[in-house]
Design a protein that fits this description.
about 15% helix, seven-stranded antiparallel beta sheet, 2 helices, alpha+beta, binds zinc ion, about 110 residues, globular
Length: about 110
């Protein structure tokens, strides 16, 4: 499997590893790119529904009501396999479920 350094899927900026963030009611492990994309780490890759909502809420600056009103056409999303120890990503689906996932979202038209 080809791995590459953690990079934003939207602007190709190299990114720092996700960090623990507490923001309003959110507790996530993630970060923000200079292109305003946000990313949230799902350590076990099992919890994408919750990660999805957390990422959208983070994107909406903690406003969960606004996050719930977002339409799929309002944002772009990308999910990458992520290895936190080496800070590398790959796009291949890992069916074993042992790989963590990084979920990226970015609002369009901003
Ligand atoms: Zn970016």
């Amino acid at each position: 499997m080809r791995r590459q350094p953690l990079q934003c899927p939207f602007c190709e900026n190299l990114l720092r590893p996700p960090v623990d963030i507490r923001f309003k009611s959110l507790e996530i492990t993630g970060g923000i790119c200079t292109c305003r994309a946000v990313y949230v780490f799902d350590r076990r890759g099992h919890n994408l529904g919750e990660i999805y909502l957390n990422a959208l809420t983070f994107l909406c600056k903690g406003d969960i009501d606004r996050a719930l009103m977002l339409m799929p056409e309002d944002f772009e999303e990308e999910t990458l396999d992520y290895e936190i120890h080496s800070n590398t990503i790959s796009r291949r689906e890992d069916k074993s479920g042992r790989t963590g996932k990084l979920f990226f979202v970015r609002l369009k038209n901003l």
